[in-house]
Amino acid sequence: MTTTTGTTATPTRLTRRLDRIGAVVHKDLRQWARDWQALVGPMLIPLVLMLLCGILFGFGGDEWNIGLVNEGAGPHAAAFEREIRDLRGDIGPYFRVVTTDADEAGRLVAEGRLQLAVTIPEDFDERIEAGEIPVLRTRVYNINTDMMKNARLRLTRAVQDYAAAHTPHAAPVTVTQTTTRADDVRRRTFIAHSAVILAIMVGSALNAAIMVAREWEHRTVQEIRLAPRPLADLTVGTILAGVVTGMITALLALAVAVAVFGVRIPIGRLPVLLAIAGPVSVACAGVGIAIGAWLRDYRAVQPLLMITFAGSFFASGGFSSVATLPRGVQVFDRFWPIAHVFETMQAQAWMAAPPSAAPMLIGSLLAAVAGAGLGAWALRRRL
């Protein structure tokens, strides 16, 4: 009797326990399916990582954009040009020639739009036939120089392959180098400075968005609606608060960049950099206000803005210059405002003779007006 009762009771308890577990699983899955943040959030992380890896390392190849100028007219110069053009790795060509014009190549390198320009001299064939060593001239953009090592190694590979094919056991080409700066800017210094630029934007946008979203979280929206002050005052005040917090964030980042990563910005360039940073911060704060007013939840605001700015950091020239990115990303960056912010502020900080900042100054002022207007419109619609 005792044995029979024990045998039937055990599966009953197990069944009830499984039913309770199943009910919990069913409840949690239903809640998960109804919560868009829970659905989208975990999916975004691997998708963004895959996208960033594609941006950094290319989706179909890893060729480098270069300028290739052939001033020679003989067979040796033509053969060496083909060697550079046809050099390939396991997944694709090493180089993509974007210009063969000497003036254009020099200008693009000086502007940071090309990392490398190679010139085959006019006397290339004459020197080889005379038993002399011809000199291959190169011009490099030596800002974020660690990224340049790969291109230099590939050019060395082209020289070695040409030497093996035409003059075994001897290198018939000497490579000279002209740089855009007297001293190199290392990758860690380049990235640290980019992080300061990012801090200006993300600090202003994120803090302004959180300030607005928390009005709904703290249930103080009704007080704002009944307050006698105009909506414009609320918008301006929130933008200014976002700008102040963004600048504090940037100053802290700058202190670390200077002390730890060796960032040095010429004093004479600071007025231009600040003149750009101010309107950019206003624009980002205005966009942050719009996002905070639309989402009304700071827990949704944070991942959205962090992912957006992190992606922009890698895709817009923060990690490496736009010239090193895949062609599709470069086309996108022509229309993405954050890319222009990185490009202009990096040029002003690092280049010996940077291009005029006037277009960026005008653009940042227009962006500030547009961002503030967007924030005011969003508050008017959502309050």
Write a structural description.
The chain has about 375 residues and is of the alpha/beta class. It has helices spanning about 1-35, 35-55, 75-85, 100-110, 125-130, 150-165, 185-215, 220-225, 230-260, 270-295, 300-315, 325-335, 335-350, 360-380; strands at about 65-70, 95-100, 115-120, 135-140, 175-180. α3 (about 75-85) packs across α6, α7 packs antiparallel against α11 (about 300-315) and α10 runs antiparallel to α13. The longest helix has about 35 residues, at about 1-35. The radius of gyration is 29 Å and the shape is globular.
Question: Short summary of the structure?
Answer:
Helix content is 68%, strand content 8%. The protein is built from 14 helices and five strands.
Strand adjacency order, main sheet:
2-1-3-4-5
> What is the molecular shape?
globular
Number of helices: 14
Oligomer: single chain
Nearest-angstrom radius of gyration? 29 Å
N-to-C CA distance: 73 Å
Label the structural class: alpha/beta
The whole-number mean of residue pLDDT values reads 81
Largest beta-sheet details: 5 strands, mixed
Q: Residue ranges: pLDDT <50 for 5 or more in a row? A: none
Report strand %.
Answer: 5-15%
Percent helix, as a range, is 55-70%
Give the domain tally: 2
Listing every helix as H and every strand as E from the N terminus to the C terminus, the arrangement reads HHEHEHEHEHEHHHHHHHH
**Annotation, overall tally of beta strands:** 5
Key terms for this structure?
5-stranded mixed beta sheet, 383 residues, alpha/beta, abc type-2 transporter like fold
